[in-house]
Design goal:
The complex is a heterodimer of chains A (382) and B (230). Chain A has helices spanning 2-13, 15-51, 72-80, 113-120, 142-147, 179-184, 190-197, 217-227, 236-239, 241-279, 281-289, 294-329, 344-371, 374-380, and strands at 57-61, 68-69, 84-99, 102-110, 126-129, 137-141, 155-160, 165-174, 185-188, 203-204, 206-211, 231-235. With 382 residues, chain A is α+β, with helices and mostly antiparallel strands. With 230 residues, chain B is α/β, with parallel strands linked by helices. A six-stranded mixed beta sheet of chain B has the order 6-7-8-3-9-10. Chain B has a four-stranded antiparallel beta sheet with strand order 2-1-4-5, covered by helices on one side. The chains are: A alpha+beta (382), B alpha/beta (230). The A-B interface holds A 2, 5-6, 9-10, 12-13, 282-283, 285-294, 374-375, 377-379, 381-382 and B 48, 52, 57-58, 77-78, 81-86, 90, 92-94, 96, 98-101, 109-110, 112-115, 157. The complex binds adenosine-5'-diphosphate and magnesium ion (MG). The site of magnesium ion has 3 residues of chain B, from helix 1.
């Protein structure tokens, strides 16, 4: 490992130059890790805020007003898909709340309590009462509750489309984060929905689906549409075009930042190694005169590249994680902000790229070194 | 082993193509094992060029160089590097020590390149440093030494792989008289003790007189090859 030893000595001989280039790589990699993790965390924060408690795909019957047949084939198809996180078959009951001379319309989503919570995160939005959806229970929005002076435990009377009147107990009140939803949306259990609509077992108003990877929705929709032609599929990516383009713009600007940081890092390493290779021409020449082969002398600068890349990436890793930690306890800790988490794959890729760029940047000086003829050094003298 | 160590047959070296300079013109010369030879001539006469050809650092425009009866012209760069490493030692006017390494490491460099047994090399390295009067300086940086000491380290490096021939190009060109005499005494002693052959380029007649055989070159031609009168 003579070439390794020589590489280390060359680097140690000019410590300031070495420290500067390591610092340069480290800052580049740290920016990569920080900006990448920041944007990815912001991205998932935004996705969580905007799409975290709503369905990403909604399946309904093609014919308007009809129920969708949530049959075995559809269940299996959804179950087999690893990206599908939650499936909620639900029945929507329209009702009117009447109290004295006042009345208010309600759209009641009826489904299993646990399933409803898996999409709408109702438990975390509770403003009073206990989360429960027995056959005669209902959960109402906070604006409805305050407007109609309804409290948990109260009984409310609802008139259904069939003109039948049902009395339900308000088990709890939720804040859905949106005034209109808080005034008009309510939740009830499966039994109530079936009875109110007179629907048979596998018939639902809609099947709501949440995905673990929201951008997969269109692909999954396409796949489902092929297998189940009499289903209408509502895809968030089509419904919320402006949100989608905002997220995409963010991703592509991150990519640009990362691309230019990488270029800067590569140029930095390449120029330093080239200068170093020129500075060490005399040494390389004499080593070759003493019998070192071209190939072996070339590896000296590859080792240098590897070393600089390794130290720089390591430093960048620590610096990047440090920046993330600092951000988390300062800006990230403020209310309304979001937590920034280091993206593991991104960190690994950044470090890997740092190493690869350093090695690639070492190729030119390495080849220059391999080509050097010792006679050039011997003849040029002192 | 054949007595003949090195044989150069009709070597010519022409530099440049537009205004060609004939640096060597049909030089034929041979060296035997254990010989102690000087090469003299005016500046620009072709001494360094000849030495670089014989040392396999450069290739002639025509003619052949045989080392150990091996036609070196046909060899690849790798094989020539191997021969330089194992069979030849070089001392130049400039010491060319590696400032990144210690005195001992500089001396050991040829064995580090050949990858020979470390323990043996280490003890021989110390032996060589002692012979050169450099004991105690092993761990100093090569840059901390005086001119004479540096040149002695370079000589130690040339001896490290126990070469058959040491090629020295004006090795004392940058040294004062005391150091010059000391270097020559060392060459002589090594030649006697180890049987290493020497070819020493010098423009100092007084020094040349002390060698066993004198080669003289003028305008790229070998004009004299005589045994020393002493
Ligand atoms: N690389 C080269 N290119 C062109 N001419 C050269 C080169 N090297 C040496 N020469 C010429 O060859 C001749 C012999 O040079 P050299 O062997 O260095 O002489 P000496 O060592 O005897 O002073 C000189 O005329 C010199 O200018
Ligand atoms: Mg010369």
């Amino acid at each position: 490992m003579l070439s390794l030893r020589i590489a280390v000595r060359f680097l140690l001989k000019s410590p300031i130059q070495t420290v500067l280039i390591v610092a340069g790589i480290a800052v580049g990699i740290a920016v990569q890790i920080f900006v990448g993790s920041l944007i990815a965390s912001l991205q998932s924060f935004l996705i969580d805020q905007t799409l975290g408690s709503s369905p990403h795909l909604t399946l309904t019957a093609k014919a308007k007003g009809e129920f969708i047949d949530y049959n075995q084939a559809l269940r299996i198809k959804l179950k087999k898909n690893a990206v599908v996180k939650a499936v909620v078959p639900q029945r929507t009951v329209s009702a009117i709340f009447v109290k004295g001379s006042q009345s208010a319309p309600l759209s009641i989503k009826c489904a299993d309590a646990t399933k409803l919570d898996s999409i709408y995160k109702l438990k975390s939005k509770l403003k009073g009462g206990d989360y429960s959806l027995g056959d005669n229970e209902i959960i109402v929005g906070s604006d409805f509750a305050s407007g109609q002076n309804v409290r948990p435990g109260d009984m409310i009377k609802l008139t259904l489309a069939s003109r039948a009147v049902k009395e339900l107990r308000v088990s709890s009140i939720v804040d859905l984060g949106n005034k209109q939803a808080n005034e008009t949306v309510a939740f009830a259990g499966t039994g109530f929905g079936r009875a109110a609509l007179g629907a048979s077992v596998n018939r639902y108003s809609a099947v709501e689906i949440q995905l673990s990877q929201v951008f997969q929705s269109t692909a999954i929709a396409k796949n489902l549409a092929g297998a189940f032609p009499d289903i209408t599929i509502t895809d968030w990516q089509i419904e919320q075009k402006s949100l989608l383009s905002g997220l995409q713009a963010q991703s592509s600007s991150t990519f640009m930042i990362q691309f230019f940081v990488l270029i800067a890092v590569a140029l930095g390493i390449a120029s330093t190694l080239s200068i170093s290779a020129i500075q060490k021409t005399r040494q390389i020449g004499i080593l070759k005169a003493l019998g070192m082969t071209d190939g072996r002398s070339g590896t000296i600068f590859l080792w240098q590249g590897l070393f600089l890349g390794f130290l720089g990436s390591l430093g960048g890793l620590l610096l990047g994680l440090g920046l993330i930690a600092i951000f988390s306890v300062t800006a990230g800790a403020k209310p309304g902000s979001f937590p920034i988490t280091p993206q593991t794959t991104f960190v690994i890729v950044s470090v890997g790229i740092g190493l690869a760029v350093a090695m690639l940047s070492a190729i030119l000086p390495s080849r220059r070194t391999a080509r050097l003829d010792p006679i050039e050094v011997i003849q040029s003298g002192g | 082993m054949a007595d003949r160590l090195l044989q150069a047959n009709g070597i010519t070296k022409v530099y440049g193509s537009l205004a060609p300079t004939v640096a060597l013109n049909d030089v034929t010369v041979s060296l035997d094992h254990g010989e102690f030879v000087s090469l003299v001539g005016q500046s620009g006469s072709g001494k360094s060029t000849l030495l670089n050809m014989l040392g396999l650092l450069d290739t002639p425009t025509s003619g052949e160089v045989r080392l150990d009866d091996l036609k070196t012209n046909d060899l690849g760069k790798r094989a020539r590097a191997g021969l330089r490493n194992r069979r030849l030692g070089f001392v130049f006017q400039f010491h060319y020590l590696l400032p990144e390494f210690s005195v001992l490491e500089n001396v050991l460099m040829p064995t580090l390149i050949s990858g020979d047994n470390k323990a043996d090399a280490l003890s021989y390295g110390h032996e060589v440093l002692e012979l050169l009067g450099l004991s105690g300086l092993e761990n100093k940086s090569a840059t901390e030494l005086s001119g004479g000491q540096k040149q002695r380290v370079a000589i130690g490096r040339a001896l490290m792989n126990k070469p058959a021939l040491v090629l020295a190009d004006e090795p004392t060109g940058n040294l004062d008289t005391t150091n010059t005499d000391q270097v020559f005494r060392l060459f002589r002693q090594i030649n006697k003790d180890l049987g290493t052959a020497f070819l020493i380029v010098t423009h100092d007649r007084r020094i040349a007189q002390q060698t066993d055989r004198i080669l003289e070159i003028q305008d790229g031609k070998l004009i004299q090859d005589v045994l020393s009168p002493v």
